Amino acid sequence: MDTAAQHAASTIDPKVAIQAGKGDNHAFTQLYDQSSTILFSLALRILGRREDAADILQEVYVDIWKRVVRYDVGRGTPIAWLITLTRSRAIDRLRASDPQLRRQTLPTDGTESAALPGQFESPADQALRTVISKTLEDLPKAHRQAIELAYYEGLLPAEIATRLNQPLDAVITRLKLGMSQLHKSLHTYWEQDLSA
Fold first, then answer.
1. How many CB atoms lie within 10 A of CB 16?
2. Mean pLDDT lowest for which of 7-11, 68-72, 160-164, 179-183?
3. 1-57 tens-digit pLDDT
4. Per-chain mean pLDDT for the chain
5. I need a labelling partner for 134 at 20 to 30 A (CA). Which of 18, 25, 81, 110 fits?
């Protein structure tokens, strides 16, 4: 494994993402090596099947290679762009699937397993993952369920309310409170990181 593959996904150089989209084979390989683990984990978490996750990942990278999608430096980091592409594709696939299968992809009883840390994660990435995981674990179960259904399945508050058989106002409140707690935890983490 070359040293470029060992860099954390959060440190992907924007120039690498731009060059990969211009057909630079070395940059494309570097982009793939630095991001494929986290993107596959995300797609697998959303879709629940390795084959579907692999298909989504292939679609994302083929579109980058064929210049169907392009990275724009002004719209965020390369990994945020790749995560957004992957999540959107996976949720589109999930929505197009059989509704009965959709209900089985994400347990809402708190027993789902978190994505395992990728081999390319830096200590900073692992620390951030720990902060997010710990914050989610500390949330009341109903708050965590609402956030996971919104993020991993792309459900709207009304759809979450229907899925959980809960009042819409309660779901909206749980989403707001849960996201507020995540924001607070991340803000504290970043302040500590900057002061170190």
1. 22
2. 7-11
3. 343 333 456 678 899 999 998 989 999 999 999 999 989 999 999 999 999 999 999
4. 82
5. 81
